[in-house]
């Protein structure tokens, strides 16, 4: 019976070490904001379904994430900050839009690259934006015959 407390202590210690490891990993990821990159801003009329941490994708591939959303009290638009992977250079005439993964899927931010030979740098604003389209408002327009 004297061997059993040692086994329980060893298992408990192993669980504690693993828990501390997961905690350190989570703290590291949140402290770095999910990774390095450069930040761009964009202003949207509606960000329905988008929040901090939402993916930013280009051609279906994740290239960044939304890091901040604030309401501009003067324009009543959602001022959004996105962090882009530092290995991705976006032409400075690129567009950014809110897209949906499907009828019942979540939303994400989609970047459509432009053709300019110049690129965005940290702190630039993406001027060409397209806000989220509400599925409910589209259904209401269809049911009412296109009015409203």
TrEMBL record:
Domain of life: Bacteria
Domain Mce/MlaD: 37-114
Annotated InterPro entries: ABC_MlaD, Mce/MlaD, MlaD_Phospholipid_Transporter
One Pfam family named in its UniProt record: MlaD
Any one GO biological process: phospholipid transport
Keywords: Membrane, Transmembrane, Transmembrane helix
Ranges that cross the membrane: 6-27
Annotated PANTHER family: INTERMEMBRANE PHOSPHOLIPID TRANSPORT SYSTEM BINDING PROTEIN MLAD, INTERMEMBRANE PHOSPHOLIPID TRANSPORT SYSTEM BINDING PROTEIN MLAD-RELATED
Name of the protein in question: Phospholipid/cholesterol/gamma-HCH transport system substrate-binding protein
Organism: Poseidonocella sedimentorum
């Amino acid at each position: 019976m004297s061997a059993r407390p040692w086994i329980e202590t060893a298992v408990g210690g192993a669980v504690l070490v693993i828990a501390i490891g997961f905690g350190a990993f989570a703290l590291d990821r949140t402290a770095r904001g999910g990774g390095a990159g450069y930040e761009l801003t964009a202003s949207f009329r509606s960000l329905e379904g988008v929040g901090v941490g939402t993916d930013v994708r280009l051609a279906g591939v994740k290239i960044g994430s939304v890091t901040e959303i604030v309401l501009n009290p003067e324009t009543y638009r959602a001022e959004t900050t996105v962090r882009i992977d530092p290995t991705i250079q976006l032409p400075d005439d690129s567009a950014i839009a809110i897209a949906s993964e499907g009828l019942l899927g979540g939303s994400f931010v989609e970047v459509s690259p432009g053709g300019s030979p110049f690129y965005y740098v940290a702190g630039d604003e993406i001027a060409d934006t397209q806000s989220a389209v509400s599925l409910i408002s589209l259904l209401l327009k269809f049911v009412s015959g296109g009015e409203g």
